[in-house]
């Protein structure tokens, strides 16, 4: 059986580094499906299992390896062993700290889940509009999503405002005296 629905996040450009804000946005995106289930159906399913795993992996790396932790700051709490083979992280801390890491990861993920849920609640009409589109079309690209989102939100589409200039509009006269 295949996936009943998923979000494929493809980079717009080749990028090797990610900011904290980008990682937080990824976690929120992973939490969006579960939040939508809870909001619309007042229950949750096992459908978000992979999203939860991926969100947890990002949050763990933020706390243990990337120095993006409120509690631990830039303390390296894990190293990656056999980086080019299995790439497992080995903790460089005691049991008490490992427990604190779990707490911080849990707090981070649950906080971002709440933010995702609130965002969807505030934009429920848009959520329903996108769901209707998906029901009719089965898939949506990023560009299609943004076009539909702007229309539902009442925001002018960037493409609608694009002005086409002719080359002579940018004609610059050169001063013959120079």
Oligomer state equals single chain
How would you sum up the major sheet?
2 strands, antiparallel
Number of helices: 5
Query: What fraction strand?
Result: under 5%
Count every beta strand, where a strand is a DSSP E run of 2 or more residues.
2
Helix and strand content put the structural class at: mainly alpha
Summarize this structure briefly.
This protein is mainly alpha-helical and 178 residues long. 52% of the residues lie in helices and 4% in strands. A two-stranded antiparallel ribbon has the order 1-2.
Describe this protein with a few key phrases.
two-stranded antiparallel ribbon, 5 helices, about 180 residues, mainly alpha
Q: How does this model look, in words?
A:
- The chain has a two-stranded antiparallel sheet with strand order 1-2.
- It has 5 helices and 2 strands, in the order ααββααα.
- The longest helix is centred in the middle third of the chain and has 28 residues, at 95-122.
- Mean pLDDT is 85; it is low at 164-174.
- By secondary structure, the chain is mainly α.
SSE order and pairing:
Layout (H helix, E strand, L loop, with lengths): L19 H22 L7 H16 L13 E4 L6 E4 L3 H28 L1 H14 L4 H12 L25
Antiparallel strand pairs: 1-2
Helix pairs in contact: 1-2, 1-3, 2-3, 3-4, 4-5
């Amino acid at each position: 059986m295949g996936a009943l629905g998923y979000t494929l996040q493809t980079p717009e450009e080749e990028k090797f580094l990610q900011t904290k804000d980008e990682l937080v946005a990824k976690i929120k995106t992973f939490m969006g499906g579960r939040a939508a289930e809870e909001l619309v159906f007042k229950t949750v399913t096992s459908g978000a299992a992979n999203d939860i795993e991926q969100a947890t992996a990002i949050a763990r790396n933020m706390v243990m390896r990337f120095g993006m932790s409120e509690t631990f700051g830039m303390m390296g709490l894990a190293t990656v062993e056999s980086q080019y083979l299995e790439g497992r992280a080995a903790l460089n801390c005691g049991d008490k700290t490992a427990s604190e890491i779990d707490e911080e990861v849990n707090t981070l993920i649950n906080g971002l889940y709440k933010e995702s849920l609130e965002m969807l609640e505030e934009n429920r009409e848009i959520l329903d509009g996108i769901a209707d589109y998906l029901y009719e079309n089965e898939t949506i690209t990023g560009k299609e999503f943004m076009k539909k989102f702007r229309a539902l939100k009442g925001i002018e589409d960037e493409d609608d405002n694009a002005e086409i200039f002719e080359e002579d509009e940018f004609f610059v006269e050169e001063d013959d005296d120079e």
